[in-house]
Amino acid sequence: MAELSIRITIAGRVYPLTVSEEEEEVIRRSAKLINEQVKEYEARFSVRDKQDLLAMSALHFANELAKKENQMAVPAELPEKLSEIVDLIDSHLQERSA
Q1: 10 Å Cβ neighbour count for 38?
Q2: Is the pLDDT of residue 1 over 80?
Q3: Distance CA 98, CA 94 (A)
Q4: 41: Cβ–Cβ under 8 A, 6 or more apart, which residues?
Q5: Which residue from 24, 32, 39, 93 puts its CA 20 to 30 A from 16's CA?
Q6: CB–CB of 9/31 below 8 Å?
Q7: CA–CA distance from 45 to each of 4, 48, 49, 53 (Å)?
Q8: 14-69 pLDDT tens trace
Q9: pTM value surpassing 0.85
Q10: By three-state DSSP, how is residue 12 classified?
Q11: Contact indicator for 40, 64 with CB cutoff of 8 Å
């Protein structure tokens, strides 16, 4: 896995990074999303401090991630319900083969 030295600009600051070839596209796209979010907050609010804009953007993306994690969470009762379904299927199959 080859590594690349790249430079990413976020909120006007340049960050040198060493990433794998596989990560490069995702890193660049992520930086683009951050910059777009910073610009959106800059346009919507009277905040001009880049640190505040970055903090607001970080909160935005963390919130989106938390929402996705909640959507993907397996309900606690799911394994028990699946086990009940498997038992019902097994029982039905045994009745049919008898």
Answers
A1: 20
A2: no
A3: 6
A4: 47, 53, 56, 57
A5: 39
A6: yes
A7: 37, 8, 11, 9
A8: 999 999 999 999 999 999 999 999 999 999 998 889 999 999 999 999 999 999 98
A9: no
A10: coil
A11: no
Asked if residue 34 lies in contact with residue 57, where contact means CB atoms within 8 angstroms, the answer is yes
- Give the pair of three-digit tokens for residue 79: 């394994």
Residues in contact with 75: Cβ distance below 8 Å, sequence separation at least 6, in sequence order? none
DSSP codes joined into one string, 22-80: HHHHHHHHHHHHHHHHHHHHHHHSS---HHHHHHHHHHHHHHHHHHHHHHHPPPTTHHH
Closest CA to 3 of 25, 17, 18: 18
Q: Of all residues in the chain, what percent are helix, strand and coil, respectively (each to 5)?
A: 70, 15, 15
Q: Using an 8 Å Cβ cutoff, are 37 and 60 in contact? A: yes
In which element (H, E) is residue 18 found? Answer: strand 13-20
CA 46 to chain centre: 28
Q: Kindly tell me if the per-residue pLDDT of 74 is higher than 90.
A: no
Gap between the Cα atoms of 53 and 61, Å rounded: 12
